[in-house]
Amino acid sequence: MRLGVYLPPFGELADPRVLADLAAEAEASGFDGVFLWDHVIRPQRPGLPVCDAWIALAAIAAATRTVRFGPRVTPLSRRRPHDVARQSVALDQLSGGRFVLGVGLGSNTGGELTALGEEPDARARARLLDESLEVITALWSGAVVDHHGPHFQVDGLSFLPRPLQVPRIPVWVATQSLNRAPLRRAARFDGCCPEASPPDLVAMLELIGEFRGSLDGFEIAVAGAADRDPDAYRAAGATWWLVQIPEISTRAQASAVIRDAAARLIGLGR
Questions:
Q1: What phi, psi does 156 have (nearest 5°)?
Q2: Would the pLDDT of 268 be above 60?
Q3: 1 and 239 in contact (C-beta within 8 Å)?
Q4: For residue 261, which of 63, 156, 162, 243 is within the disulfide window of CB 3.0 to 4.6 Å?
């Protein structure tokens, strides 16, 4: 099981330079990945500084050399798929092929979506997510794309350059229940970001394995607090454990969590 750090770009961490420094520290400490929360506002915390995750990902790409990185997860219902296609390829190039696209429905916690006029209905967001993924993966191919869907249109265009990664940039899909629709969606792609107990994760992966025919090469990225033991998730089938930095952390606190987690989980003693 590979190890990563899951950074919240809020408060003192709402600065892409700080996030890049923390990512470089995580890499030097032996972590395999660095992932960001992707939010525009946090209505339940008025006045909280928030960093644009995608700008910060570019800073992380430039500051690191080996770690996988990406958003966990970006709600595609509030993004334009052609923009995501362009931005993700740019990040893939900037990093030499290390970018991972984590996607999901997003949630309306505290009115985060409705406060900005975004789609509040989860089923409608699911439809937007599915169509967005269809458009993004088609544009990544570099072929001429004709797409005329209920929400998006691509009229005979090809997007170049293609991603460095072959056959495409990995897509990890958020899953939060044993509902078959999101698990079937995840099975079509390269990994999942589950919110589940270890027994529920076992059940999730059984269904995903049925849909895919095999879990070979499929990544399962679970996030948990720094003081949690990942062994139960490892046994359940997780391939990644992401050490989750508390939502409100100072730079010094985040750095300390990274050092302590490295010493405990990686054994570097730093």
A1: 65, 45
A2: no
A3: yes
A4: 243
